[in-house]
Amino acid sequence: MMKDLTNQAMGNPMAGNSFATRADAQQAVVDLTAPLLEAFSPGCARVTLGATGAHFHAAAADLEGLVRPFWGLAPLLAGGGRFYGIEKFVDGLNNGADPAHPEYWGPVTDRDQRMVESAAIGYALALAPDVFWDGLSPRGRDCLRDWLLNSLHQTPAPNNWNFFHVLVSLGLRRVGIDHDLTIIEGNLDRLEGWDMGNGWYRDGSSRQADHYIPFAMHFYGLIYAQYGPEGDGARRERFRERARRFAPQIAHWYAADGAALPYGRSLTYRFAHAGFWGTLALAGEEVLPWGDIRGFWARNLRWWSDKPICDPRGTLSIGYGYPQLSMSERYNSPGSPYWAMKAFAPLALAADHPFWAAEEAAPKERPQVVSLPEPGMVKFEDRGDVTVLAGGQRSPTFGRTAEKYNKFAYSTRYGFSVETEGRAFRNGPFDNMLAFSEEGDLAMVRCRESMARIGPDWLYSAWSPMPEVAVETWLLARPPWHLRIHRISSARHVQTVEGGFALRRDDPTPGPALQPELTDRMARMVTAQDASCIIDVAAPFPGVTRRAPRVVMPEPNTNVLVPRSWVPQLTATLVPGEACFGAWVYAGRLEGQAPPEAPMAMPSADDLAAMRAGGEVIRVWDLPAG
């Protein structure tokens, strides 16, 4: 079989960086930022990194390219590091905020992308005013002051955007500019109103608790806790206390090799996932031993250092494990991925800070199964890799939201796939989804639930993919496997496909020694490193339906981690009436061993009914009235 000789780290400026020292992290910021210097406009106010578009104005996209690197440059410079070329960024502030300059960014307006970028400027002023404020011309300071003050009077989106005003306020305070603090108090009150308890927030008044909770809500909350006004001490302490409760839980989203859980929107921000751990250090919060915090932070950055996430220039691409527009959101411009620079917050700390002085700790052994009621997840581990069973969340339609939030399972090793063709029912990946179709083309999947409950090692949801079709689903963690039970009531003739985990496919077609393993009940794919398997089982309800196994090769560039994949699936056609079926599902590293056998024990109908009646309502699903 021909080998795939792709240079996996092609173009990645972090390739070979061990992130073992503070100097390593400083060098990473320099290496990631240097390729941008060739993309500056003549007046330095715009940085154009590509030709693809987002839903907002190109001027705002070019502003992203200019200021999102500040998330790394500001702490680098605040901590005594250097970047040769910083003058271009300062010139960009001088000119971009000036209404008389041809490269003026335009004013911030309500729910405007420029408001998002104002936060990076506020952060830079708060951490390194000697560079980003003192380095401006007198007119540049006046124009930037007015631009930022105007931004505070514009309405943010009703979610983490409220923190953008807060960061602008911190920057303005640091450089001595008075402004209306009642606006900021209102922002902070709204943000605290989304507290779900136990350290978790919603991202606004929605059923969302994704990576925006660590890399936005807690990230900004800890910055406010560290740099906010002394007169707001009680609120600052509340932000700290929530982060203390949150940290041991979000740790379950990270595998032993450093991979974070691919789940939810804005995955193109990649190693922003390390930002929460770095900001704990910036805020002086030893919620875990410093060596453990350092370990979560460094392992995640190392995991990214060998991935093909950049173009040949060394510029970060839109995508996750590789350049992939099909998984992007409508607000992703070519400069958007530089939100990843939030990972470098601890560079503002002195070299002798305990975060840097501590020896990085190896991953600790953890409970194999953990229930997280706030986000609606049951986590289990196998050989250091993390799988979560999921339910209860829902996102606005930014792009591929059912795939990002509503699959049955997500994995740090196998990621998830997006559907790139709405009428590709016959060969869509449908990994960890149950898809329905009337005509065999348009597919419908779980995207909202009428009920969502959780227990110590299981989840239950009630949902409807289309009118006159009702589904109840139970997900049970039985590591390294999990069990799915579906009970369906339908007034329609429908076709169904249910997928297991997507498995990396290195070559366009299987070779003679690499063929799907199919029996009358099982579909399994085994490579040199991994196996993925789904086994049809009878569910303990009336209407038992048997399904046919198969392995499909979905369209390329559908999985967020690898460009080509296999997915084992089960298929069945249902007639009107009651139907039920189940599946044992597994994916894991082989490490020289045969794939494990599936468990035999099945819950009874009474067991499943007791779960449905007695489980805890998933908290993110249970929106408060009003």
From TrEMBL:
Supply the Pfam families for this chain.
Answer: DUF2264, DUF2264_C
- Pinpoint the DUF2264 domain residues: 21-361, 367-581
Domain of life, per lineage: Bacteria
| InterPro entries registered for this protein in UniProt | DUF2264_C, DUF2264_N, UCP014753
Q: What is this protein called?
A: DUF2264 domain-containing protein
- Protein's organism: Marinovum algicola
